[in-house]
Amino acid sequence: MRVFIAIDFTNEIKEQLVEIQRYLKNGSKKGSFTHKENFHVTLKFIGDVTPEQLQSIKNTVGIVAQQNDPFELAFSNIGSFPRGNKSIQWIGLEHSSALHHVQSQLEDELEKYGFAKENRPYKPHITFGREVVMETSIQSLQLPTIIDKIYVDSLVVMESTRVNGKLTYSPIHYSSLT
């Protein structure tokens, strides 16, 4: 089973993300764009795990969730990670001490179970598309403004699978923040 820990969104937030993604699609030549139901913020990518490891991950997520209060996130800028002549398109989040604290706690707690800490700085974002080739620059697009904040009240363990060739992220465990 291939898993990661994330923050999931309400349908309303996902609809707003779809609206922005539509503009990016229109300004691109091609790309593999994220399906609406797959929008999320990754806290920790783990990868393939055994059933025993999965139980440790669920327990850890529960412990971290119990030690943190709900918090809000706000969208920031649109950006991209270059990959040759293609890129990964994303929207970032404004700095959140609460988000970074939760993410750091997860890293520390999971390391106790043998999961390696990420060696790159944490850069929270929501991926709009992979292998995107833009026709025009992102800066020249007239993107809609997002106003809503994201209310985070739970952490989720997600499974990543392919269903009929489509990448699918399915929640398999939620833990509520207290």
TrEMBL record:
Motif HXTX 1 positions after renumbering to this chain: 40-43
Pfam families in alphabetical order: LigT_PEase
UniProt catalytic activity: a 3'-end 2',3'-cyclophospho-ribonucleotide-RNA + H2O = a 3'-end 2'-phospho-ribonucleotide-RNA + H(+)
The EC number(s) this enzyme carries: 3.1.4.58
Enzyme class at the top of the EC tree: hydrolase
Sequence motif HXTX 2, residues: 125-128
Sorted UniProt keywords: Hydrolase, Ligase
Function field: Hydrolyzes RNA 2',3'-cyclic phosphodiester to an RNA 2'-phosphomonoester.
Protein name per UniProt: RNA 2',3'-cyclic phosphodiesterase
MF term (GO), any: RNA 2',3'-cyclic 3'-phosphodiesterase activity
Gene3D superfamilies xref list: Cyclic phosphodiesterase
Domain Phosphoesterase HXTX: start-end pairs: 9-83
Family per record: Belongs to the 2H phosphoesterase superfamily. ThpR family.
Active site (record annotation): H40 (proton donor), H125 (proton acceptor)
